[in-house]
Amino acid sequence: MSKYAPTSGINRVLVIRFSSLGDVVLLSCLFRELKNIFPQAKIDFVTLAEFSEIHSLSPHINEIISWPRLHHIKSLWILAGLLKINKNYDLVIDAHKSTRSLIIWLRYLFSKAMWLKLNKKTWQRQLLISFKFNILKKNPSRRQTYLDILKKFTNTNKLNNLSEIFVDESIEQRLNQKISLNKINNYIVVTPGASCKLKQWPIENFIKSCLKLSQNNHFIIVGGSDDDLSRQLADKLAGKAINLAGTLTILETCALLKHARYVISNDSALTHLAEAVGTPALVIYGPTVKEFGFTPQLALSEIIEVNLPCRPCSKNGSGRCKNSNYLECLTSITPEQVIISARKLEKSLN
């Protein structure tokens, strides 16, 4: 007799993850493995409207239900009620475990749906941040943590935890209307910005690294529409770089990344997007650490970091630097370190 729960009665599945961009990207392995475990099931996904495009081409998802970030929490209560009445889910997976997902859970009390939740290891992470007491040395990747939600049904260690993003010909055509990639050889995608300033490697270091690497490469710069760092980098790389910051959708960015040699980035969602389409990344870590579970998945990708007693100081780069040598975790990473890693990667790619 199997020690796992039967899968035959699961015909409708709801997955909940509102944000952030990187987390939503890494969630892709869960959709794929859900479909493998429950091939007969229809899988729906609730997320913020700004991230609904990411998995819009996934063959594993039946419907994406988007929720506007600015809507009052009451609207989420109403949405949860409609989902409960109209969708009749057998399994609900809370892959966020937030106040917003708690509201949906409250609407599902006393329903027939089985409810499974992500183990975020919040207190273990806080111990590491606040007291540098590390019990996360063997912490699995966030991708594997998502799959571990399904341990009731299968041996999750045997599942494929690699993330994936699907891009079709229409996305490629949209991108080619904005930039003709056929005219650019050996391009590297770089993003000097980050969602939080504590995660931003100094722009002068990006400039020095890219100028050195530009002898054999072109650069395409991506980021937000208000990203002044992207403009600064583009100005210094005149003739060797194209600045597309703020001009691409998420899937257009994925199409761009798919054809890039590699990516140079701060610890940001761009690295997860790149790897999801098979492109390696050089990732510059500052206040965050690999124990949080967001490490690269590809063999050729690399984390560039320095070990300091103050690291980690934040779970996502928010807050303020308490080191008397401001942002030492980033300023002590030299352009030469990134250049050496890039040359090594280029040699492996040739």
And the CATH topology of the largest domain? Rossmann fold
Classify the helix fraction into a percent range: 25-40%
Average per-residue pLDDT, rounded, comes to: 95
Summarize the main sheet. Answer: 6 strands, parallel
Number of strands: 11
What CATH architecture label of the largest domain applies? 3-Layer(aba) Sandwich
Assembly level: single chain
Q: Please list the strands of the largest sheet in the order they lie side by side.
A: 8-7-6-9-10-11
Radius of gyration: 21 Å
Order of helices and strands: EHHEEHEHEHHHEHEHEHEHEEHH
How many separate domains?
2
Question: DSSP helix count?
Answer: 13
Q: Please identify the top-level CATH class of the largest domain.
A: Alpha Beta
How would you classify the helix and strand content by structural class?
alpha/beta
What would your notes on this structure say?
The strands form 2 sheets. A 6-stranded parallel beta sheet has the order 8-7-6-9-10-11, sandwiched between helices. A 5-stranded parallel beta sheet has the order 3-2-1-4-5, with helices on one face. It is built from 13 helices and 11 strands. The chain has 2 domains: 12-158, 3-Layer(aba) Sandwich (Rossmann fold), CATH 3.40.50.2000; 169-349, Rossmann fold, CATH 3.40.50.2000. It is 35% helix and 14% strand. The mean pLDDT is 95. It has helices at residues 21-26, 28-37, 73-87, 99-107, 122-131, 142-147, 169-178, 203-213, 228-236, 250-258, 269-276, 328-331, 335-349; strands at residues 12-16, 42-48, 63-67, 91-94, 114-117, 187-191, 218-221, 241-243, 263-266, 281-284, 302-304. By secondary structure, the protein is an alpha/beta fold. Helix 8 packs parallel to helix 9 (228-236) and helix 8 (203-213) packs parallel to helix 13 (335-349). The protein starts with 11 loop residues before the first strand and ends with a helix. Helix 4 (99-107) links the parallel strand 4 and strand 5 (114-117).
